[in-house]
Specification:
By secondary structure, this protein is α+β, with helices and mostly antiparallel strands. The protein is built from two helices and ten strands; from the N terminus they run H-E-E-E-E-H-E-E-E-E-E-E.
């Protein structure tokens, strides 16, 4: 196989991009303002678009998660499976909707506004779970 300079440059660029992809992620962790048992954890990729890697929401004694087996033994029976349906983030706001695996209905919505300065970044907004409730949440980004 003959290697051309273009192929070698492309291969080198791909190798350099691989480690940065692992570092190019973050989290949004939210807690209910009035109820600390209301939580949201969203792992996101730091891309020009909102790329949700995983998510888990707890409220009203129930759990909604993209990985129903990730909560440990016995959690799968108590967890409603969700997938990332759609979202938007622009540094000032983050909107994310999660649907059932068949994409028939939105099961969880997260609506956040962002405030930041040179050293701190915070978000606050609403966790909306149709049929369960709406909760104000405060969040930190990691």
């Amino acid at each position: 196989m003959r290697r051309t300079p273009g192929k070698m440059i492309l291969a080198a660029a791909m190798c350099l991009a691989l480690p940065s992809a692992a570092l190019a992620s973050g989290t949004i962790e939210c807690t209910g303002v009035e109820d600390p048992n209301v939580t949201a954890f969203v792992s996101i990729g730091r891309l020009p678009i909102l790329a949700v890697l995983s998510a888990q929401f707890s409220a009203d004694g129930r759990v909604w998660a993209t990985d129903v087996n990730g909560g440990g033994e016995g959690m799968a029976e108590k967890t409603t499976a969700i997938i990332f349906g759609q979202g938007y983030a622009d540094g000032r706001q983050t909107f994310a909707d999660f649907t059932d695996p068949n994409v028939e209905q939105i099961l969880v919505s997260l609506r956040l506004v962002n405030a930041s300065d040179e050293t701190d970044d915070a978000e606050a907004g609403l966790l909306v779970i149709p049929g369960a409730g709406i909760w104000p949440v405060v969040c930190i980004n990691g």
